[in-house]
């Protein structure tokens, strides 16, 4: 997906860019409102991440301008302000959602997904492998043409595997992606989710293979 | 505030007392002046009549062939009897010889060559009398002999008349005093009226009404009102400054925390050694803890500030809760927690929606944070004509019964919260919001003991 990040703090911006690119997204970065305006004129974005306090003005004025120009691009506001009234204000101005800094990346992903799904979009980059079709945006999994319902954790696990077929993911890494850091989770918890996912994709010609001592990977049988 | 303000007395009372006091002094003075003046006037009149009587006797004295004879004229005494029933005494003396009258009436011995009138008050026959004496010098055998005529009258009638006059003067003084008291009360009342009107106007203002006072006031009160206005100005400035400061402080703290957190997460995805990974996880947990604490401290400051000056507007609790639940769904989804909403119909209440939203969000945050994976959190809103009851039930195992009472204290966390990031302010915030609206926060375990049931009660009106 293509993101525009509007954020003036250079180190935070590069950390977010780093992370979003790690997940395979294309991200442009604008450090102020005038740059952001240039970006949105030349490029269509799937989603805009917008900071409120910017050197050349208030992010809310950019948001208002976007909505005044009838731009439909979803906007998620990244705010350091904790005042509830501020958050309510950005929603009234047409933001799709907001996150308070510092934010959990899985929450950002979840909110991006929720916003895009609310907009009724189906992503163009559906994953097909074997008899398996997966739309990461709507979370729709089809096995041999039949819809299979997925729970959130199963969906995210499948997404991680499908982003890099044949690549081995260690249990520790999967725990970090699936669980928040404020809970103690044993690595064995992953086995439960892998087990469930295996059942759901059974018969598709695709399998999740256990690589002893290293982790798991998805591959064609 | 008013309990702490010591009163230094009432202006109205002081003004009334001063005015009434002055009126009393003036009335007493009036009484004395009237009394003295009338007394003098009465005495002078009496003296004149006595003298006129003596003079008319003198006029009736005839000196014929060295014989001095007195034919007492009727009018001389009748003019006195006109005045009152007092007894009249007289004595006509030639030299030391009494020609007629009461020869024991003590007549003053005239100075040689003295003529004219003498008046004195003396006691005669056991009564106080006023006496007028007139003298004429007759030349007999080459010797000048004084002819002395004294007329005296008792003073009973005079005293009675004076008593009458005193009563009248007293009545006059009292009447003057009564009128002065009425005027004093009215004056005091009307001179503090502008003060009372100003006080009423300022105290009727809403807690957030920080407009200056523009109504015209008397010149004497202008300095007070000017100071009040500049005080209001300073207050408004300082309030907006502290709000800006909180926003700025949050920005300065949270942005670097966000950088560190994101960098740590990114690094975690790249490294493999378990001990490094654990260190990074610890780091992220610490960042989450401090940012959550900072957020809740700011929330708590905001709640205390807004609850102090609660501004009520009617709003629908149903909309507010539904919106919040929808917003938190993505977060709940991360743990595959299902958020159930049990609401029917609108639940209109009067209060500060921002505060209520903050309270409900804190409770929902708690429920999602502590509930196990793939469990349910049930949000229900019910109520009757007087109360709305919003309950949040989770399956997080519930509280220890002996801890429940202390949980809403600041920074107190239940034993079940060990191992989870938190600041211990969420329930405090929820309780303070409920109490500011005249409601309460109830904490209990669900009947089956599987989790907690936290309920916010808000009055409907």
Automatic annotation (TrEMBL), chain A:
PROSITE patterns: OMPR_PHOB, RESPONSE_REGULATORY. This is Response regulator transcription factor. The modification 4-aspartylphosphate is found at residue 51. One of its GO terms (cellular component) is protein-DNA complex. CDD domains: trans_reg_C. The lineage of its organism: Bacteria, Pseudomonadati, Pseudomonadota, Alphaproteobacteria, Rhodobacterales. Pfam families: Response_reg, Trans_reg_C. InterPro entries: CheY-like_superfamily, OmpR/PhoB-type_DNA-bd, Sig_transdc_resp-reg_receiver, WalR-like, WH-like_DNA-bd_sf. It comes from the Bacteria. Residues 124-220 bind DNA. GO terms for biological process: regulation of DNA-templated transcription. Residues 2-116 form the Response regulatory domain. Residues 124-220 form the OmpR/PhoB-type domain. One of its GO terms (molecular function) is transcription cis-regulatory region binding. Keywords: DNA-binding, Phosphoprotein, Transcription, Transcription regulation, Two-component regulatory system.
TrEMBL record, chain B:
Signal peptide: none annotated. InterPro entries: 2CSK_N (IPR013727), HAMP_dom (IPR003660), HATPase_C_sf (IPR036890), HATPase_dom (IPR003594), His_kinase_dom (IPR005467), HisK_dim/P_dom (IPR003661), HisK_dim/P_sf (IPR036097), Sig_transdc_His_kin-like_C (IPR004358). Residues 189-240 form the HAMP domain. Its EC number is 2.7.13.3. The chain crosses the membrane at residues 15-34, 169-188. It is an enzyme of class 2 (transferase). The keyword Transmembrane helix applies. SMART domains: HATPase_c (SM00387). It catalyses: ATP + protein L-histidine = ADP + protein N-phospho-L-histidine. GO terms for molecular function: phosphorelay sensor kinase activity. GO terms for cellular component: plasma membrane. PANTHER family: SENSOR HISTIDINE KINASE YKOH, SENSOR PROTEIN QSEC. This is histidine kinase. It comes from Ruegeria pomeroyi.
